[in-house]
């Protein structure tokens, strides 16, 4: 069968939650509040990490990268999603869709790698404390973080170009509130096998592999803390590890569900709910889990705030 002419594709319609008006009215204040908390919390972490010299360590360097990632990731789609929740016109241009797809893929993929890097950093700090300053040097920190950003950007540009060069025929309705690559591929009438292979390989390399590495790192950390003679020290380590793993499991379990489940042509509201869970809720929780429970960050924040008040 001849595909419909695809040269005139200029925009897509993001269906989102348009079939559930009551849900739209509920999601707007909730997502607005979560997005605001995400921006304020993660911006605060970056600012404090930069302004306080005591936080110029590998742990807070990676934490600052995670905060920047969370801001960029949620900002790729949440502002437009909020506009669409209140608007009848839920369209996005072809170029805007490609840009949104590429940036969300890139930042989301980078976060997968960065969480694994952070677990490795904690493993070295706790299990190899004497060699930690040498093993996790300033240069290695920049190489690990920069490599994750560049590698995932190149991967995402490739996946986006392959997907958006496919012929699109029939309707232009994306069954999602964002230009998610899996939702856009459902509109293609050409052969999507190459794009699907790229996505599968990327999903395997960025999901089960880093998750297994994270689990191994924290298993070794817990084994080391069991040998700590101080009960208070063990409790602190267990508390920190459980909190970190809670966010990791929330993020990875929902992403794995989205990208590695059996392919379906039918759009499901659960897909969008899971996307909100890992793409909006998790970035909001990261500042609380990784920083606000940390005494060093609290003290640094009070110090920075005190300097700001004094300067006035």
Features:
312 residues; mainly alpha; three-stranded mixed sheet; 12 helices
Descriptive report:
There is one protein chain. The chain has helices at residues 21-51, 58-75, 78-85, 94-127, 132-135, 138-164, 181-185, 193-206, 208-225, 231-260, 269-292, 295-311, and strands at residues 11-14, 91-93, 173-174. It has a single domain, classed as Rhopdopsin 7-helix transmembrane proteins (Up-down Bundle). Helix 1 runs parallel beside helix 11, helix 2 runs antiparallel to helix 11 (269-292) and helix 10 (231-260) runs antiparallel to helix 11. The radius of gyration is 21 Å and the shape is globular. The relative contact order is 0.14. A three-stranded mixed beta sheet has the order 2-1-3. Residues 1-7 have low confidence and may be disordered. The chain contains twelve helices and three strands. The protein is mainly α and 312 residues long.
Topology:
Blueprint: E1 11-14, H1 21-51, H2 58-75, H3 78-85, E2 91-93, H4 94-127, H5 132-135, H6 138-164, E3 173-174, H7 181-185, H8 193-206, H9 208-225, H10 231-260, H11 269-292, H12 295-311
Parallel strand pairs: 1-3
Antiparallel strand pairs: 1-2
Pfam family, one: 7tm_4
Subcellular location: Cell membrane
GO molecular function: G protein-coupled receptor activity; olfactory receptor activity
């Amino acid at each position: 069968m001849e595909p419909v002419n695809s040269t005139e594709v200029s925009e897509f319609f993001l269906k989102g939650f348009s079939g559930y008006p009551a849900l739209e009215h509920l999601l707007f204040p909730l997502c607005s509040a979560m997005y605001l908390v995400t921006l304020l919390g993660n911006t605060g972490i970056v600012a404090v990490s930069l302004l306080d010299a005591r936080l110029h360590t590998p742990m807070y360097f990676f934490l600052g990268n995670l905060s920047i990632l969370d801001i960029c990731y949620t900002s790729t789609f949440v502002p437009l999603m909020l506009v669409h929740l209140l608007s009848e016109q839920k369209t996005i241009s072809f170029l805007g869709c490609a840009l949104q797809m590429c940036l969300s893929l890139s930042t989301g993929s980078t976060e997968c790698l960065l969480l694994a890097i952070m677990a490795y950093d904690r493993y070295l700090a706790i299990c190899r404390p004497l060699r930690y300053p040498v093993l996790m040097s300033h240069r290695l920190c920049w190489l690990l973080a920069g490599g994750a950003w560049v590698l995932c950007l190149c991967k995402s540009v490739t996946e986006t170009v392959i997907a958006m060069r496919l012929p699109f025929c029939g309707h232009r309705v994306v069954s999602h509130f964002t230009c998610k690559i899996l939702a856009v591929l459902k509109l293609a009438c050409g052969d999507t096998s190459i794009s699907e292979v790229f996505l599968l390989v990327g999903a395997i390399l960025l999901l089960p592999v880093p998750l297994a590495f994270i689990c191994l790192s924290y298993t070794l950390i817990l084994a080391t803390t069991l040998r700590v003679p101080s009960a208070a020290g063990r409790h602190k380590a267990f508390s920190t590890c459980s909190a970190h793993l809670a966010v990791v499991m929330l993020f990875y379990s929902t992403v794995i569900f989205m990208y590695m489940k059996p392919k379906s042509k039918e759009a499901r509201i659960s897909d969008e709910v899971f996307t909100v869970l890992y793409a909006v809720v998790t970035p909001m929780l990261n500042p609380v889990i990784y920083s606000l429970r940390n005494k060093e960050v609290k003290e640094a924040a009070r110090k920075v705030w005190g300097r700001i008040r004094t300067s006035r």
